[in-house]
């Protein structure tokens, strides 16, 4: 399982989330506490939006986050009011730069922790649901990028909650979970249009990938797979099957109407 983090608030160096905290995303890349694997060494990346509203900028590489000589410098020098960061432990897709998160299309950026079982068996059926422009926009081979494009195809830019509900239903419908396949659909997704951050957790069994939120002392918000610093911030676990929106007005939650029930 991957680890991820996102920030929205007054512009800060990306290092404030990725490097500086006691249990930063960089620390989690080697010592994750709530992941199947403690080490997330199959690449990393971050997407950020500028103080002038431009973006997203994108930096990704295949090196483990702790061994990339550029990471510390970039995180210290880039200031942003909204950014997403990710360290990868791959389940599908080769370790290439194109398969590293976050992914970006137009104004949107996206990252994912989890899995879609039997993705190679159902990939063709899901790709057939993409309009030509989004099918041609695909660059990598991960289930994560395909989920992102499916969300865009189902109206992410118009209504994020409606898009999430439609895509979760599609994944559950095409997956063989409960029909001879032991692996569940597991999704923790974080995405942004440069104005707000949206996130949701879902699993077709009871093992939902973790996600927490905390308000910073400077009036910002952080989402993270694991609490970054339990000494100075109060972390709240994000409940499954709801779409959380972080904006400059605060945090809100919309209950999702998922058509397929979670298996025991």
Spatial ordering of strands, largest sheet: 3-2-4-1-10-9-11
CATH class: Alpha Beta
What would the principal axes of the Cα set say about the shape? globular
Overall strand count: 13
Question: What would the CATH topology be?
Answer: Glutamine Phosphoribosylpyrophosphate, subunit 1, domain 1
- Low-pLDDT parts are 260-264
Main sheet attributes: strand count, strand direction, barrel closure: 7 strands, antiparallel
Q: Helical percent range?
A: 10-25%
- What is the CATH architecture annotation? 4-Layer Sandwich
Radius of gyration equals 17 Å
Order of helices and strands: EHHEEHEEEHHHHEEEEEEE
Sheet/helix structural class = alpha+beta
**Number of helices, where a helix is a run of at least 4 consecutive DSSP H or I residues:** 7
Mean pLDDT: 90
Going by CATH, what is the homologous superfamily?
A: Aminohydrolase, N-terminal nucleophile (Ntn) domain
**Percent of residues in beta strands:** 25-35%
Taking the alpha carbons of the first and last residues, their distance comes to 21 Å
- Kindly give the count of domains: 1
């Amino acid at each position: 399982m991957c680890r991820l983090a996102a920030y929205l608030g007054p512009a800060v160096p990306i290092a404030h989330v990725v490097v500086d905290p006691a249990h930063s995303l960089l620390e989690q890349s080697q010592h994750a506490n709530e992941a199947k694997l403690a080490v997330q060494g199959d690449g990393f990346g971050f997407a950020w939006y500028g103080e002038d509203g431009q973006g997203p900028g994108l930096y990704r590489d295949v090196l483990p986050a702790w061994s990339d000589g550029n990471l510390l410098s970039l995180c210290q020098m880039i200031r942003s009011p909204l950014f997403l960061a990710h360290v990868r432990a791959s389940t599908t897709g080769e370790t290439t730069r194109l398969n590293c998160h976050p992914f970006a299309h137009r104004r949107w950026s996206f990252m994912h922790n989890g899995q879609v079982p039997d993705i190679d068996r159902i990939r063709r059926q899901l790709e057939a649901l993409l309009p030509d422009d989004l099918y041609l926009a695909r660059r990598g081979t991960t289930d994560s990028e395909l989920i992102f494009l499916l969300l865009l195809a189902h109206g992410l830019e118009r209504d994020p909650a409606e898009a999430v509900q439609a895509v979760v239903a599609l994944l559950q419908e095409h997956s063989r979970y409960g029909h001879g396949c032991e692996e569940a659909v597991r999704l923790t997704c974080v995405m942004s249009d440069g104005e707000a951050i949206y996130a949701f957790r879902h699993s077709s069994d009871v093992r939902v990938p973790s996600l927490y939120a905390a308000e910073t002392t400077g009036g910002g918000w952080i989402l993270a797979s694991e609490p970054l610093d339990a000494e100075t911030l109060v972390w709240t676990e994000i409940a499954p099957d709801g779409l959380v929106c972080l904006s400059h007005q605060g945090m809100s939650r919309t209950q999702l109407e998922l058509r397929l029930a979670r298996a025991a």
